[in-house]
Amino acid sequence: MATCPAARGLEDDAAVIPFGSETLILTHDTLVQGVHIREDEDASDIAWKLVAVNLSDLAAKGAEPLGVLVSHMLGEDDQAFVAGLHEVLGKYDVPLLGGDTVRAEGRRVWGCTAIGRATCTPVPDRRGAKPGDAVYVTGQLGLAMLGMEDRGSGSVADLAYRRPAPLLSLGRSLAPHVTAMMDISDGLLLDAARMAKASSCTLALDAARLRPLAPAGRFEAALRWGDDYQLLLTGPDGLEARFAVTKIGIVQEVGQSSLLLDGHPPQEPLGFSH
Amino acid sequence: MATCPAARGLEDDAAVIPFGSETLILTHDTLVQGVHIREDEDASDIAWKLVAVNLSDLAAKGAEPLGVLVSHMLGEDDQAFVAGLHEVLGKYDVPLLGGDTVRAEGRRVWGCTAIGRATCTPVPDRRGAKPGDAVYVTGQLGLAMLGMEDRGSGSVADLAYRRPAPLLSLGRSLAPHVTAMMDISDGLLLDAARMAKASSCTLALDAARLRPLAPAGRFEAALRWGDDYQLLLTGPDGLEARFAVTKIGIVQEVGQSSLLLDGHPPQEPLGFSH
C-alpha cells in the first residue's frame, strides 16, 4: 500500500500508552469517499461507520471507550451526518469530545480518533499468537458482503454493512484470555496473514470449520471480504465453550507460508487492500 | 462556517478529559490542500505544520504532549512528508503513536490528533476572561504573513510561516497564571472576538500597544492574519514583568461589541474564516 517504508509505520495497531496506573488506547481511521465509502452512501451511515470502525479497534484491545474526536468535511448532508453521529454515539454511550469541520470542494474525507481505557493488561495485539494456540473468530463472515448487495432493504445483512456493530463488550470479555486479537476489517484471510506475520508463526485454518460461517456458495469471497468487523483471536483450547466464538484453526511454528487453508496457501489476493 | 448548528459543536476548544488523578487533553486538526495548505507547499512543511498546529493547541492548554496520531494521504512526496514529520517530532520530543495512510485521487487531506497531559488545573480555556483582567499576547503579529510573501528565502519570517513553533514551554509557564488562554490561528482580532464571546465580556484592545508588534505599514492586515500561533491570554496585571508577553488591552463588562480597538469595533472581516 504505502510506497514509503516509514509511512507504513502509520499502519500499526492502535497506540497503547501507559499513563500513570492506567493504560490508554488511541486509534485513528480516515475514510475517503470513493475509496472506503461508496459515492452514494448515506451521510448518516458514513457517520456511523466512521465511529464504529474506530470503536471496533478499541474492542480488539478489550478497551472501554472514553470518547471520540470527529473530523467532518462539510457538504449538503450535514444534518444527516450529525444524526448518524448521534445515533452511534448514543448506542454505544460514547461522548463526542471534539474534532473539527472543514469545507472543501471535491472528494470528501472524514477522520475519527477514538480514545479508550484498557480493561486488562497486557493489552492484546496481533503479535502474541503462539504455536499450539487455537484460532477463533466471532460471528458470521461475509454478512457485510451480502449487505452491500442488498443495500437499503433493512435486512440483517444490510444493517451489518451500513451499521457495523463494534464488539466492545465481547472484546472486553475475551481480552484477558487471548494471546492475540485484532478486528477483521480487510477480510479474514488478509488479516489472519497479518496476525501470523506479526506473531512470526503460521495460522493453519480449517475450511470445514469456516464454511458454516460463510453464506452458501460464497465461501471464497466471504473469506476475502472486509467490513465485517468481527474479531480474530488466538488463545487456549476451549474458549468456544465460554464465549461466542468459533474455533477455525490452530497456530503452528512458522512455515513457508504464514497462512494455510486446509494445509495450502490460499489463493491471492487474500483480501481488500486500500 | 458550518451550516449545521450541531456540526459547529466540533469547532470547540481542545477536549479536556479527567482521567484518574490526571487530566488528558485531546486535539484534532485537519488540513486540506488548497484550503489550509497552498497547492505548492513542500510536503515536509505540510507535515511540520500539521503537527505544530496541534501542539500549539496543547500549548494553549499548558499541556505536555504525550504523542500524536497522523493521517497521511499518500502522494509523490511521501519521503519529504516523513522527513518533515521526523523533524517536528524530534524538535519537540513528541512520539508518533500511530495513525493511518490512505490513497486517493484528487485534493489531499491530512489529519493529526495530539494527546497531552495537563500540567495545571483548572485547564485554561477561552471562557475564563473576567472584567478587570489584562489582555496579553506573545511574540510578533503578522510574521507568518510576511513569511508567506517571502517563501523559501530562509528568513525568520519564512520559517515562521513554513515551520510555526508551538509555544509549549511558554504555555506551560503561563497556564497557572491566566484566566483564559487560546492560540491565535485565525488572526488576533477574530480569535480575540471568540474569546470575548466565550467569556461573555468585551476585550478592549489598545492600538498603540499592538502597533509595535506588527510590521511597519501592515498593521491592519497583521491583526487579521492567521498562522502565527502566538498565544492570546488574560490574567492579572503584571504578567509582562515575568513572562515574554505584551499587554495589549483590558477585559471589560460585555458591551454592544465584544471587541473594541481604541474604543471602536474593528472593521470586518476580523480574520481568516475557513
TrEMBL record, chains A, B:
Binding site for Mg(2+) 4: 13, 27, 57
Entry binding sites for ATP: 99-100, 126, 185
Signal sequence range: none
GO BP, one annotated term: thiamine biosynthetic process
EC class: transferase
Record keywords, A-Z: ATP-binding, Kinase, Magnesium, Metal-binding, Nucleotide-binding, Thiamine biosynthesis, Transferase
Residues holding substrate: 36, 227
Binding residues annotated for Mg(2+) 1, in chain numbering: 29, 100
Annotated residues for binding of Mg(2+) 3: 13, 57, 183
Job description of the protein: Catalyzes the ATP-dependent phosphorylation of thiamine-monophosphate (TMP) to form thiamine-pyrophosphate (TPP), the active form of vitamin B1.
Protein name, UniProt field: Thiamine-monophosphate kinase
Protein source organism: Erythrobacter mangrovi
